[in-house]
Amino acid sequence: MRVRFVLYVYCLLLLSCGPKKPAAIDIVNDNAGRETVILAPTDGTPAMNTINTGKITPQQLISFARTAIGIPYKYASFDPEKGFDCSGFITYVFNHFGITVPRASVDFTHVTHEVPLQSARAGDLILFTGTDSHTCIVGHMGIVITGKNEPLQFIHSTSGRANGVTISPLNTGYMKRFVKIVRIFPQNEK
To answer: What Cα–Cα distance (Å) separates residue 45 from each residue in 39, 56, 102, 122, 160?
Structure first.
């Protein structure tokens, strides 16, 4: 019981560090007319500060992600021939469109451009702890596929019962592990 209390206090301290409200999203255009999302502050890694989504829409991303449904789970892989872990699936989908994202789910732990759960939009990333819900470090993630005012569903690669790329509802089991929603597409701010 004491260990759980200490972990709970640690989680509260970890989550309370940094800004109290989400940082504003900055959208800039490069010389080729591509929109870039600035997610800051982060740990200083350039790939985490800037995510260039170009002219890709959340719907295009989700359509492509759905083509991977049924590919099996494989730890530390982003190869569709072998299978995906959760962040490998995210990397595969975003890289298909030339969008650079961090490779490991834990690298999203301190990305601060989060939006409230009720504001989640298709194309946003949903982050969870790993299977140990007593830690506040991101260990699982997926892509939100539903829009505003719809019951939230996300596509992800899971080592659970589905054992691979699947679509899941945000049920009570996932809510216990929920960390945050991260906005990636500037279109979702409008």
So the answer is: 11, 23, 9, 25, 31
Question: Residue 125: which of 93, 164, 165 has the closest Cα?
Answer: 93
Report pLDDT digits (tens) over 110-151: 777 789 999 999 999 999 999 887 888 899 999 999 998 899
- The span from the CA of 47 to the CA of 79, in Å, is 21
Residue 44's region, left for phi above 0, alpha for psi from -120 to 50, else beta, is: left
Q: pTM to 2 decimals?
A: 0.76
Q: Write the DSSP string, 103-133.
A: SSGGGGTT---EE-GGG--TT-EEEEE-S-T
Q: What is the mean pLDDT of the chain?
A: 79
Q: Which CATH entry fits the domain spanning 2-189: 3.30.950.10, 3.40.50.150, 3.90.1720.10, 3.40.50.300?
A: 3.90.1720.10
Which stretches within 34-182 are classed as H helix?
A: 46-49, 58-66, 86-96, 172-177
Domain range annotation of the chain? 2-189
